[in-house]
Sequence to fold (119 residues):
Amino acid sequence: MQSFDPRVNRIKPIEEKTEMNIGEAWEPYEVFHQKKRGDHHIHVGSVHAPNAAQALLFAKEQYGRRQNCVNMWVVKTADVTQFQYDDADIFETAIDKEYREAYGFKVRDKINAYKKANP
Fold:
């Protein structure tokens, strides 16, 4: 049956196998959406699906209908990598680059003193 809604007609039917055998489970996918063009993509949740195309469809239904959204990314959870907390030292500023940090400037105290002196 053909739909009159062009958005529905753009979605191609998924021909891949979606049946599950005993002991199998669908893979988890992480969903990121973009509220308006030019914004950052934000993590909004997860879906479980047998393949990426189905995950995109599930994500659209789950997270695209209820929230304003112009774009969506769906990524296998297994493909998302992260640093270990033990490796946090790699984010510290190098000792010879301390001039890049602004913690040496105590401007807030000067601003508050100026405000107090000039009400």
In short: The domain at 26-117 is CATH 3.10.20.520 (Ubiquitin-like (UB roll)). The helical segments are 6-10, 52-64, 107-117.
